[in-house]
Write a structure and sequence with these properties.
It contains 12 helices and 9 strands. The chain is an alpha+beta fold.
């Protein structure tokens, strides 16, 4: 077991502090988000829509976001902010709503005519060059349960979800981890996994979405826990997850829903904790799962090598061993 005064642990503490989003920008983000909400609500009201709620969402609300940086020549948008706008399923005139993304794209084109924007599979993205902030405006339909919403994708697919429950899922584990001796916290481990994913994917993270990492982290936390130091926690998590991915172990949670068993014909089940019929690993091919497992095994070996070097008081050898895991940033920002 490493001491919490080990050089490697202390350097990783510094790296975690660097990886997280800039706290000094949080009020600026909140102010800009409030302005976007006000403009959208006015446009929606003029369009006979009833806005039910505009909750905080995503990594900003979960405290799992990572800073904006470059991975090679690719900008990694660490300051993305999700802004759900929950509206009634019908207009005031009774018109059923379906093409919400197109409606909201129109609202934003009128509200921010000179701001770059694009439609993603479930949001309209605004990129503010001057402030270096990006906002994903996510239109959603209200349900009878105020804690659940319907997400409409650009493909026309509808999926019931819960913004609030996803946040509660992460925050509950962060609170629990803070009761454990030592510095290591669940949400900071999620940040490290996100950074590791960026390095392995060279910025193209489309096959391995953040919700998948959330569930892998939650599974490791439930079965392994967190330890007093970051190196030991990383080694235990990567070792555990390497086995789980290799065996295609189903991953599910009972916080909010009851799971009925593995989906028929799917290679691996990683179940959304708030929507039992949403397998977040559904779109992963067998090859992509093998690649993910290989990355995890390599990370396990690299972290163990770093721990071994740290035991030998080889500080440079220890941090060098983590470069394949976290990139050159771990050399210069730890």
């Amino acid at each position: 077991m490493l001491s919490n005064r080990s050089s490697l642990h202390l350097r990783l503490c510094t790296f975690v502090d660097w990886v997280r989003t800039d706290k000094t920008k949080e009020q600026k983000i909140r102010d800009q988000a409030d302005e976007i909400r006000r403009r959208i609500q006015k446009q929606a009201t003029d369009d006979e829509l009833v806005v039910r709620s505009m909750p905080w969402s995503g990594s900003f609300a979960k405290r799992t976001g990572i800073r904006r940086h470059l991975q090679g020549s690719t900008p990694i948008e660490g300051q993305d902010v999700d802004l759900p706008i929950v509206v009634s399923p019908e207009t005031e005139g009774g018109e059923a709503l379906d093409c919400l993304l197109q409606r909201f794209d129109g609202y934003l084109s009128r509200s921010y005519p000179e701001t770059a924007r694009s439609i993603t599979k479930s949001s309209v993205r605004l990129d503010f060059v001057k402030s270096k902030l990006s906002f994903d405006i996510v239109p959603m339909l209200a349900t009878e349960d105020p804690r659940r919403q319907v997400l409409i994708r650009s493909s026309g697919e509808r999926r019931e979800t819960s913004v609030q429950m996803h946040i509660d899922f992460i925050k509950a584990r962060s609170r629990e981890s803070r009761s454990t001796k030592g510095r290591v916290c669940f949400n900071e481990m999620v940040r490290l996994l996100k950074w590791w994913r960026e390095v392995q994917c060279a910025g193209d993270i489309s096959s391995y979405p953040s919700i998948l990492l959330d569930q892998l982290a939650a599974h490791a936390f439930r079965e392994v826990g967190v330890f007093e130091t970051y190196p030991e926690t990383l080694a235990r998590w990567f070792s555990f997850l390497a086995h789980e991915v290799a065996c295609r172990k189903p991953i599910h949670f009972d916080d909010f829903v009851t799971w009925g068993g593995p989906p028929q014909g799917e290679t691996w089940a990683v179940i959304d904790p708030v929507t039992a019929d949403n397998n977040v690993a559904e779109r992963l091919s067998d090859i992509e799962i093998e690649v993910l497992g290989g990355w995890i095994e390599s990370a396990r070996d690299d972290v163990l090598q770093a721990i071994s070097a740290d035991y030998d008081d080889d500080e440079r050898g220890a941090i060098d061993a983590l470069v394949p895991v976290f990139g050159n940033h771990v050399l210069h920002n730890s």
